[in-house]
Amino acid sequence: MDKISKIEELNSLSRRDFFKKTASVSAVAAAAILSPSSLFADDENIVHHTQWGTTLGNELNENPYGLPSKYEHNVVRRTSSLMSSAGDMHAAVSMTPLHELKGIITPNGLHFTRTHNGIAQIDPNKYRLMIHGLVDKPIVLTLEQLKRYPSESRIHFLECPSNGAGEWKGPQFNSLQFLKGMMSASEWTGVRLKTILDELGLKPTAKWMLAEGSDGSEMGRSVPVEKVLDDAMIVWGQNGEALRPEQGYPVRLLLPGWEANLCVKWLKRLEFSDKPWYAKEETSKYTALTASGRAIQHFYALEVNSVITSPCPERPWSDLIGGELVEIEGLAWSGHGTITNVDISLDGGKNWVEAKLKGLVLPKSWTRFSYMHKYVKEPLLLQSRAVDDSKNVQPTVNQEKAVMGVEGVYHRNSICTWEVTLKGEVNNVQVRSI
Amino acid sequence: MFKLDLYKLITTSVALVLSSTLLYGGSDTSTLPGKYISKMGAVDGGVIYPRKNGTYAAYRYNEQSTKGVNFGRIPTANELKAWDVDIMPDGTGLPEGEGSVSDGDELYEKQCASCHGEFGAGGHGYPTLTGGNQEKLPNGVIKTLTNQRIEPGMEAPKRTIGTYWPKATTLIWYIRDAMPYAHPKSLTNNDIYAITAYLLAQDNIVIDGKKMDSEYVLNKEKLMKIKMPNENGFYPNIDGPDGVENVRKFFSDRAKNIGAGTRCMKDCKDLSATGKEPTIMKIDNEITDVVPPYTTVRDLPPEVENKLVSKAEKMYNDACKLCHSSDKMGAPVIGDIEAWNKVTQKGFDKVVHNAIDGVGGMPPKGGFENFTNSEVQMIVEFMIDSSKKKH
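Structure tokens for the assembled complex are given below, as produced in the milestone run.
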């Protein structure tokens, strides 16, 4: 037995021990809460001084760039060799631990990462951005010059269109991190592309923009100019600091709500044209093959979506004894606009109640929802269903499958189901017709 | 003092009430947090939030003019020549050069086969490039692409260059900029045409009614004549002056084109397209191959050995690991004692010699020709050392 499973066993033992004691006094529980009781065992952590309360702590300059508590070392991105070529981690994807997050911001070190040719390490002094093509005045910029432009900061999610791609044919991973972890959210800082283009003079014949990365894969994608002029940004800041190398340091394109693949990292060049380009990543990949045998191309916005983050396979309800009120919490998001409603079902989609939204409710951003549930020990099929302000309702698996088939790989946004067992364990299942 | 503060407080609150009245009485009629003025009709099917009076959805912005913000400079002709090298389906940007199928065969063996398999047929975990039957249905759709694995054991659709890629220009562009994977941008234009010719020949692509035999020489003009078998396999149509409008129209009918839900609240039915009731589908074969392993435990991390990474190991990681860390690649895997015993039986000097000159599927110096011979020797030493029995 390895160390971690040993610890897990110890934890579950002590938990069981605790429940035994609690259960044995449940009849007098009310009285026990009201007055100090001798029915519970004393908690060692309360009745004795702690180690950290009786010694000098660490020096404040130990980590000039702060680090999480050592005890949080398991809160990390995870990957699987199945999501790469032959286990090669230069072209692979790592997943954000959504089960460990609260709120609507992902810490920079936990942002999911997808690379096609490794993580480029760019010297910011040698970084250049070129904008040219159908503009009156083409331009090259250094990083310092780019940062001189007036900045805006906005909170947006980024999602790989392959998020949950393994689940088209049925559930595969018993984990929230692997079901939905190919997404993260940050406050991004940069300049609106329109601010720069106003100065360069975009020609009326310009209909498309090529965004090109400078890493070994030279990721290229065609973007309609309309999106560019609406809310596209060139960003260099992520949650108050520089972009992480994994996110395209020093500069990436941000197309709010659209495939993260379109938000080209290590951005090198923007060219304007009257035609689209047919780059490799918008033809052989990132096109969704439907049952007709033809594929959807230029599939931009990530559709309305949601998932319950608590409970989830990693955060089950097995410590609940029944009778208590517990929060069902989750994330909803839409690349088409702003979340307006989220519904919850406890019976696999037959009946629904409306959940409450909480915290900031922003366009093309993660939105938290919450529902207080009186837990009784019984099997449940938990689902969430999001609605946005562009009149999108999240589809069931059957509804999505009827149009998209099961081989499309990209843009899977159908309703997720958590099976809660009698013991309170949580499993990834799907409600679908076979 | 109290009186004075109270007076201040009252005036401030009046001002606050006034300003907030102005704010809500203005163009922004939204009252609930999270409800924003918007209009439908964005190209992606979503809404557009107007920027007006310093307000954009939930955000305030500085509405002062940015005219005159002007940094950077005009690029030089040589800078444009160096970077403006994208390749479009109309041939814009295609480099001059030529290469034969047989030259491509040789290059492919040396540069590509270790990842993409013999003849581009895959098998090493990296993308399969060629093959797949291009047979078409009466409606012009390539048959293999209609495969849907709705039941276990069914055949997958084969997405290769021949069955899937819509444009041949994409191949030249991508191979030139992004391949070979471990040292992109190292091929000459002639190499690129040759490798492209080889790959297209594997998929029996016809140019001007002519099959590409091994002597066939591909160049810019001939490439422009290629019509890929799946050229019409994609929608909406993005070409021509109506391209963007076609996209907008497509995404405006999301229920029909990409699937949408309905907001039923009670006694909801969820039948399949063929009228079948849903059931609960559980995980059949759970994927547990995750790194690092799943755990939510809060404990102290295991002590990490303070190991110094040697120069040889770093070079190994950068240059050799790709092929020598997986038994799928046909190269002796680092740490595989038996495999390396076999290698070292040839004698150390021979092993170093092979690594410098290339052997089997391995190109000279693993394709990293800037390594000096003594650096290659260091790496070989490191690999042999890492593949010995540890005591």
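Residues 3-24 of chain A form the longest helix (22 residues). The domain at 305-429 of chain A is CATH 2.60.40.650 (Immunoglobulin-like). Further analysis is deferred to the final report.
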